[in-house]
Automatic annotation (TrEMBL), chain A:
The gene is SEPTIN12. Septins polymerize into heterooligomeric protein complexes that form filaments. It comes from Mustela putorius furo (European domestic ferret). It comes from the Eukaryota. Belongs to the TRAFAC class TrmE-Era-EngA-EngB-Septin-like GTPase superfamily. Septin GTPase family. Filament-forming cytoskeletal GTPase. Residues 7-17 have a biased composition (Low complexity). It is found in: Cytoplasm, Cytoskeleton. This is Septin. GO terms for cellular component: midbody; perinuclear region of cytoplasm; septin complex; sperm annulus; spindle. Residues 1-22, 325-359 are annotated as: Disordered. The lineage of its organism: Eukaryota, Metazoa, Chordata, Craniata, Vertebrata. Pfam families: Septin. One of its GO terms (molecular function) is GTP binding.
From TrEMBL, chain B:
Coiled coil: none annotated. It comes from the Eukaryota. This is Septin. Belongs to the TRAFAC class TrmE-Era-EngA-EngB-Septin-like GTPase superfamily. Septin GTPase family.
Amino acid sequence: MEPMRQSPSPCSSRPSSPRTPPYETLGYVGIDAVLDQLKIKAMKMGFEFNIMVVGQSGLGKSTMVNTLFKSKIWKSTALDLERPIPQTLKLQSVTHIIEEKGVKLKLTVTDTPGFGDQINNDKCWDPILGYINQQYEQYLQEEILITRQRHIPDTRVHCCVYFVPPTGHCLRPLDIEFLQRLSQTVNVVPVIARADSLTIEERESFRRRIQHNLRTLCIEVYPQKCFDEDINDRILNSKIRDRIPFAVVGADREHLVNGRCVLGRKTKWGIIEVENLAHCEFPLLRDLLIRSHLQDLKDITHNVHYENYRVCRLNESHQLPRGPGWVNLAPTLGGPPATPRPSKVCQQAQDDSEDDEEC
Amino acid sequence: MAVAVGRPSNEELRNLSLSGHVGFDSLPDQLVNKSTSQGFCFNILCVGETGIGKSTLMDTLFNTKFESDPATHNEPGVRLKARSYELQESNVRLKLTIVDTVGFGDQINKDDSYRPIVEYIDAQFEAYLQEELKIRRSLFSYHDSRVHACLYFIAPTGHSLKSLDLVTMKKLDSKVNIIPIIAKADTIAKNELHKFKSKIMSELVSNGVQIYQFPTDEETVAEINATMSVHLPFAVVGSTEEVKIGNKMAKARQYPWGVVQVENENHCDFVKLREMLIRVNMEDLREQTHTRHYELYRRCKLEEMGFKDTDPDSKPFSLQETYEAKRNEFLGELQKKEEEMRQMFVMRVKEKEAELKEAEKELHEKFDLLKRTHQEEKKKVEDKKKELEEEVSNFQKKKTAAQLLQSQTQQAGAQQTKKDKDKKNASFT
């Protein structure tokens, strides 16, 4: 085992990364103590997570968020007959700090009431895209300052959970449009909402049809295949990809079942337990979003989506108007500029895809 | 249209209590897992005179034998030699780069000794800055070569710091985390050591040299860092040879008057150095390099290039302009290169053409010559042929004449014989 020798001319090139197999040390040095140091540093700084829920009203978005984080993030929006349906899409954000076993998490949940609720839903995804791009823009502006902060506050949307109504048939045009546009800018996790109205077989066939739709239209939802790092990741993520979209049920009331207190929905024909894998797939969603892939979501947002945005932004700078108002840049209508991402997102004609679907 | 985001009135962040186990306490583990799969980078710069024990100390610190040849004392100037190694311990991979100053303190005129070091450090910062400013960048897979820690080896004179040391450290303190250590500490007696250490520290303070402060804001490490800071600068002894002490082998240096054990805290501060450098503060050293030293360099560099933050509209503005300027410059250079290449190409083509023309002409001439000779030969041959034909015809004539003559004579002869025969016959009858 020979170390890689680098003898550059004085103060010139950087040493290139070694290509030899790793050295084993002859005794304990203590390098692995760096892991603990990392942990301490991370716990001191706290974590941030921004999640966005998108879907038509009444699909149980607020309830789902409450169930995910086991606290009253939102007051579940009961049908308020006096409050009119908002005419335009207005995003609502709420931020909380939650702590568990010494780990502080600053959670920001963005809701999108009014999405898909109008008669004419054309371009209803624009405000959402605008919001996401606005967060990227904010981060970019912070990053290119000369004196910048030690820790740039991260408001970028790390994950967007899209609620698909449980029609049982296939993806609707609105869903398709939205998923196509957003999967290029942010990590999208589609879920089948209110899955308690579908039987297990109906769920399976619905899921297969949705997967088929996504495949035909080349829509890459999280976890994206192209970012699998090694074989372990691939195996793990394939299992997840097989079950996407998860059929979930949200509930924030507790009921007594067999002596245990469980979260669930009580109906005349039984109690649907939210945390029971046989009843719904909520535990899978929770594990994916929180317990195993949270850091991965943040990393992909930072390393891929944000970088894509930055490339486009810096490339097109000379085309955009300069002067006051530069920072509050309006998003271009019709979605983000063409992102030159490594994965190919093919835009097939709407009619072709619809012909393929079994409706 | 700016997107209006509605927020509830009581916006100040409130702590929410959870009514069950959510599961994000696994976040630090997720983070650590990601980092382990990527591996860590750590770069140490060793500044010190030749022969003061830099390489030996590195070997001892990391418990491996990094092969290296000892440097000579004849170096004309200070050179930096960087070597990278990959170490692995349990599941942690560390890409370690050790940068050595070769020839430091050997010259007669040491005015410029610090310059190569400062330039090297700046070059690493510059490389990182360039990568960060690129439009298409890949920071997460970038091999970070910025110097995280600088071990400054002080010669064990027992008196005070040399002026070279002071000058060099002053130049380096705003660029890198300096950890001063007293090398070859086994040559100093214990009472002298204490005086030496306090003299060094007071000199550093009075000259305004900012050495690395071990962080004391985190409760878990505050205590140990505070106690260790008292012993700065660490007096270390390095050794890779093992000596039998008691009933086990330990790293030590054997003298006729005794054995200096490296890992014995009464003998030297090596253990403290290892604790501080690797086991407790490695991550903090990296963070300080990134957030303090690198940011300072970046700020200075960008201000040098003429940017200001004061006018928030012009900052992103001018970065775009630099990009454009750079891009135009680059394009301009490309064009120039293209022109040059084209010119060269045209010249070459001309040359080749001329050559070919020459060759063609030659060929033509040859061809003409050949043709002429051929014609001549043909003529000759034709003449000869004519001659031959003439001869042949003559010969034929002669032949026919001869034949005619022969046949005439034959006829005459035949007639004669016939006449004779007839005569004979007539005579018979």
